[in-house]
Amino acid sequence: IGKGNPRAMVIAPDGKSFILSVGTKVGKNDGSVMDITTDAVLVKEKYYDFTGEVKTSVQEIMLPKQGGVK
Length: 70
Fold this sequence. Notes:
- By secondary structure, the protein is mostly beta strands.
- It has strands at about 5-10, 15-20, 25, 30-35, 40-50, 55-60.
- The model has no long low-confidence stretch (mean pLDDT about 85).
């Protein structure tokens, strides 16, 4: 783990690559990156439940084990 703001490079299903940092907007549910660890990217999303109430969820996107570009 280096100094500074953590970042993660990810590849979307359409093949485009992106560099994420805390605060980056992602996904179709108004999500944003909350935290980046060595194992995962945590994304906070807002959505409407079946009653129409706004809910918040945290999605964990697992990262591959180290061995790639550092």
